[in-house]
Amino acid sequence: MRCVALLSGGLDSFVAAALAREEHELVLSLTCDYGQRAAARELGAAAAQAEWLLRENATCIAPLTRRWIGNAEGYGRIG
């Protein structure tokens, strides 16, 4: 079965992707940038994890979510 792994840059998602790769055809890893404070670090870690998994990594930009939660400059502001 072909699958896509969601990588946050953290250990949990990386282990889940590595385990999925053992049983399935991992075709892509996806990381979401929703305006979190640690976005740069998380996106960098996810890219390194995808490289280890030997898969292309795509980043999803979630502007609507950014609007709801704010961003590093205006964390928590809505609008």
Main attributes?
79 residues; alpha/beta; three-stranded parallel sheet; 3 helices; 3 strands; globular
Q: What can you tell me about this protein's structure?
A:
The chain has 79 residues and is an alpha/beta fold. The protein contains 3 helices and 3 strands, in the order E-H-E-H-E-H. The protein has a 3-stranded parallel β-sheet with strand order 1-2-3, with helices on one face. The longest helix has 15 residues, at 39-53. The N and C termini lie far apart (41 Å). The mean pLDDT is 81.
**CA radius of gyration:** 14 Å
Overall average pLDDT: 81
**Inertia-based shape:** globular
Which stretches are low in confidence, meaning pLDDT under 50 for 5 or more residues running? none
Main sheet specs: 3 strands, parallel
Order of helices and strands: EHEHEH
Strand order of the largest sheet: 1-2-3
| Approximate strand percentage | 15-25%
Total number of helices? 3
Helix % is 40-55%
DSSP summary, beta strand count: 3
Distance between the termini: 41 Å
The chain-level structural class is alpha/beta
Topology (elements, then pairings):
Layout: E1 2-6, H1 11-23, E2 25-33, H2 39-53, E3 57-61, H3 63-69
Parallel strand pairs: 1-2, 2-3
Quick description:
This protein has 79 residues and is of the alpha/beta class. The chain is built from 3 helices and 3 strands.
